[in-house]
Design brief:
The protein is α+β, with helices and mostly antiparallel strands and about 100 residues long. The chain has a domain of about 55 residues. The protein contains three helices and two strands. The protein has a two-stranded antiparallel ribbon. It is rod-shaped, with a radius of gyration of 26 Å. It starts with a helix and ends in a 17-residue tail after the last helix. The model has no long low-confidence stretch (mean pLDDT about 80). The structure holds zinc ion. The site of zinc ion has 8 residues, from loops. Zinc ion (ZN) binds next to loops.
Length: about 100
């Protein structure tokens, strides 16, 4: 009978395993300008959101107070940035979320 076949099929599917979707591993944290403390790595001046310039150094984008600081940062990244790309004058004691 069709009904019994349906019931068999249903019973086969009945014990549904609890599917837990594991979230994919978080990608390496790339600090964006928005998350970064808005302080110019070169002169230490605070940069208001939407203000200042952005420069790319070693694949990271940094907010700087103006183009002059951006040029300086590009010219001497080691002077202002740690090996991991963090600005040397960034607050190290601030824990990420
Ligand atoms: Zn600056």
């Amino acid at each position: 009978m069709l009904v019994s076949a349906f019931l068999v099929a249903l019973s086969l599917h009945a014990p549904l395993p609890a599917v837990t979707l594991t979230a994919p591993a978080e990608p390496p944290v790339v600090m964006t300008v928005a998350e970064a403390s808005a302080v110019c790595p070169v002169c230490g001046k605070a940069i208001a959101p939407g203000e200042g310039s952005k420069v790319m150094v070693r694949g990271h984008e940094y907010a700087v107070s103006d183009k002059g600081c951006g040029d300086e940062l590009v010219a001497n990244p080691d002077k202002y940035l740690d090996a991991d790309g963090t600005a040397k004058n960034a607050k190290k004691d601030t824990k990420p979320m």
